[in-house]
Structures are given as structure tokens and as C-alpha cells.
Design goal:
Elements: E1 3-7, H1 14-29, E2 36-40, H2 46-53, E3 59-62, H3 79-84, E4 89-92, H4 95-98, H5 104-117, E5 120-125, H6 129-133, H7 137-149, E6 160-164, H8 178-194, E7 200-205, H9 213-217, E8 224-227, H10 234-245
Helix pairs in contact: 1-2, 1-10, 5-7, 7-8
Bound molecules: phosphoenolpyruvate.
Length: 249
């Protein structure tokens, strides 16, 4: 089964997130095979969206999380707070958080917390444009995976999602070749397996839309896609989910 994750970023408020979640559930009703769908609204919308998704198989993700348990951390949100709202997955290390100073060692700490709390981590990695142009993508992503995952003990309950999102592909309309995606995904899988992490789902993210979704989703190295811009438009999101539903994993 393929996985579709929609990251709604800071695009939608509570009412819009509720409306879009309802639209997704309505759209799924008509599908024969339903892929795994994970919606990641903004923090303020999590509670209301959680109520809507509660009797469905659609999962709820946050877009970030503190690695601290609790305490004087103004503006942060803990794993316990997310769990209270019915959140069961969390995006960690998205490039838009990294642009504000988050580094791989922070992502490592968040990952440890998420796994300990039974929240499935969606760990984002990916190279900047200059690294891509210099042909150094694999070395860069290898290093990221090492720093983030080394010493992390996973358990049977957790699925680890890794989203390979080249920074230059996010929101740009540009995408890497399917061959490059395949190569990086295979490397990530092998590296995690060497670290003892086998229950892993490797996703591609960066300018996925209904037109290019098939090429990515139809590749056996691609377990699913993480989408940003196209994920806040109901028809585009449902079109991508439909593509995933028609592919035999
Ligand atoms: C993202 O924000 O993770 C993303 C993949 O965005 P977009 O689909 O808009 O490139």
C-alpha cells in the first residue's frame, strides 16, 4: 500500500482544514482500494481535524514537535500534547524548519522522543541545490541519515517514514529524475537496515502533482509521496490519492 502525506504547512486555518478533511473523507468513499493517507494540518487545527478523522483510517500528523518532555519552553508543543489530540505521526526536520535553524542533531532528539512516545516519525532529508549540482547528493543524504538515526532504537509498534525531499524541488515545480530518486531511496533503505531499522517507508517529496505522481508512485523504491502545495487543493489531493489507489504496491 502506498502512502500519501499532505503537509498543509501554514496555509489553512481551522475552518479550512476541517472543510478539506471532510472533502478528503468524501473523496475516499468512492475508491475501491484506499492507500494510507496522512494529513498534517497546522497545530491549531489538529483538535478539530482529529474529531473528523476519528472514525476513519486517515491518520493525523503534526508538522513539528519538541524533543522536551514538558517545562518552560514557550511556543513549543510536546509529544504528550499531540497524543492528547489523537495525533499519531509527526513531520520532523522539514526544510522549512531547518531554514529557521533546526539541524540534524535536533531532528535526532525529536526522533528519539517520537519513537519513545509511539508517534510515527516522518523524517525529512534532502540536499540543497549546490550539492545536487556538484553530484554530491548521496554523500550528503548519507551523512544526514547517520546523524539522525545512529543509536536510535526503534520498536515494532513504530513505522519510520523517511521523506527524501531535495530542497531545490520543494515548491519550485522542479523534480529530480526518477532514476535519482530510486538511487537515493535504495541507499536510505540499505543504510537504515544496517542500523537495524527495517520497518521503514521511504517517500519522495518535492513538487509532486497529479501529472507527475504516477511516475514516482509506480516505482517500487517509492513507498509514497509527501505533498505540500498540491495537498491543499482538494481535487489535486484526491487525484494523487486516486493514482496511489490504482497502483499495486
Ligand atoms: C513539502 O513542503 O514538503 C513539499 C513537498 O512541498 P511541495 O509539494 O509544495 O513541493
Amino acid at each position: 500500500m502506498k502512502t500519501i502525506i499532505a503537509n498543509w504547512k501554514m496555509y489553512l486555518g481551522v475552518r479550512e482544514s476541517v472543510a478539506l478533511s471532510r472533502g478528503v473523507l468524501r473523496g475516499l468513499r468512492g475508491m475501491k482500494t484506499i492507500p494510507e493517507v496522512i494529513l498534517a494540518p497546522s497545530y491549531p487545527a489538529l483538535g478539530e481535524v482529529s474529531k473528523i478523522l476519528s472514525r476513519s483510517r486517515v491518520r493525523l500528523s503534526a508538522q513539528n514537535m519538541s524533543h522536551q518532555d514538558h517545562g518552560a519552553y514557550t511556543g513549543d508543543v510536546s509529544s504528550r500534547m499531540l497524543k492528547e489530540l489523537g495525533v499519531n505521526a509527526v513531520i520532523l526536520g522539514h526544510s522549512e524548519r531547518r531554514a529557521k535553524g533546526m539541524v540534524d542533531s535536533d531532528v535526532h532528539l525529536k526522533l528519539v522522543r517520537a519513537v519513545a512516545e509511539g508517534i510515527d516519525p516522518i523524517v525529512c532529508v534532502g540536499e540543497p541545490s549546490a550539492t545536487h549540482e556538484a553530484g554530491e547528493t548521496e554523500g550528503y543524504v548519507h551523512e544526514q541519515i547517520n546523524t539522525i538515526f545512529e543509536g536510535v532504537e526503534t520498536n515494532k509498534r513504530s513505522t519510520i517514514y523517511v521523506a527524501y525531499e531535495p530542497l531545490w524541488a520543494i515548491g519550485s515545480g522542479k523534480t529530480p529524475s526518477i532514476h535519482d530518486v530510486e538511487t537515493v531511496h535504495a541507499m536510505i533503505r540499505e543504510q537504515l537496515s544496517e542500523l537495524g531499522i527495517d520497518k521503514v517507508s521511504v517517500l519522495y517529496g518535492g513538487s509532486v502533482d497529479p501529472e507527475n505522481a504516477y511516475e514516482f508512485l509506480n516505482n517500487s523504491e517509492v513507498d509514497g509521496v509527501l505533498i505540500g502545495g498540491a495537498g491543499v487543493r482538494i481535487q489535486k489531493l484526491l487525484d494523487i490519492i486516486t493514482v496511489a489507489s490504482e497502483i499495486k504496491a
